[in-house]
Every structure is written in structure tokens, then in C-alpha cells.
Automatic annotation (TrEMBL):
Pfam families given in the database record: PEP-CTERM
Ice-binding protein C-terminal domain location: 173-194
Domain of life: Bacteria
Organism, as annotated: Prosthecobacter fluviatilis
Name this protein carries in UniProt: PEP-CTERM sorting domain-containing protein
Amino acid sequence: MLLPFGMAQALTWDEGLNGDLSDDGAAPTLLGTLSAGSNLITGTMGALNGAPPLDADIWNFTIAPGYYLTGINLVGYSSASGSLGNDSFMAIANGGSINLSDPSQHLSNALWGYAQDGFGNTYNDLLMLLDLGPEFGGIGFDGPLPSGNYTFWIQEGSDQINYSIDFVTTPVPVPEPGSLMLLGVAGLWMLRRRR
């Protein structure tokens, strides 16, 4: 499909079409730079009836300069067993890898499931859960994530989960010309006052 000039194709990854996402924190699947707006990741994690091996899904992405990550929306979540008692784990780290054995090195981490977000109700903001504070000793963050490189990890330990997660990026607001002029005038006034 051809898009109008200046519009980027949304970044998507579907494990059914693009292949299995990595389960290695030192070598995540590289998804590239998130497009403005929605970026949909669809896959399967965990294991049927909790039987090993458990399939983690780990991917690396970049938020372009001039953009924030303003949402990680859970748009699809279903368990193979139909159980409502499962909890899935997620974590995010700065950089091109994530330590799977030391949660204190994560930027943030959290469980999500029935108690936290309604277990599969659509458009649940997982970024908000991560922003509330790491449950397992990560360093934390405040507000939307700024431009940079990040690694995201999801895991389920007791069931096989089909999911769709939408990573939403938004341009950083640009101050209005009047605001910039006001800042400039205030700066000149401060300089004059110091002399």
C-alpha cells in the first residue's frame, strides 16, 4: 500500500508472519524505530498448562528524537486455557538488552492480569502500570518515555497467552512562537538586571 508523501508505515510485528520474537535478554529481536502513532506487536508467550519450555518475548525498539512513548496499550489478551487467574510479567530497560535475572536493573517492571487491568479488556495502558513504580526493584521513571533505545520483555508462567500490544508515540509539543518570544524577552530582562 502506498502512503501519502511524508507518512511512515506503522511498525508492526506479527509472530505468525514475521517469526518468533527472541527469548534472549542479551539478544532481543530488533524492531527498529517506532513510527509516529500506533506500532502493533502481536504474538504468543508462555506455555500451554505451564509446561516447559516457557516462551518469553523480548524486543528492542527506538523512540526517535522529537517523540515520546505515550502509551503501551493492551489491545488483545487471551489465554489458551480460558483461565482468569493468570498473571503476566513485563519489564522495560534502557538500551539494547535486558537482564532477565536481576529486576533491579530494569527501568521498571510489573505484573499484569485480572486484578491489575481486567485481564484482557482492550486498551489497558500498560505504560501507566510501569510508570506507577517498579514492583520488583527497578529504578523507575516518571511520565512518558523520552526518545532513546529500550528493550521490552513479557513473560507468562502458567498458561499460553495470545496478545496484541500497541506502542504509541507522540511528537514532543513545540512551544508556540509567542511563548518563545516571551522567554526571549524574559532572558534579556534577566541579563540586563544582572549588569
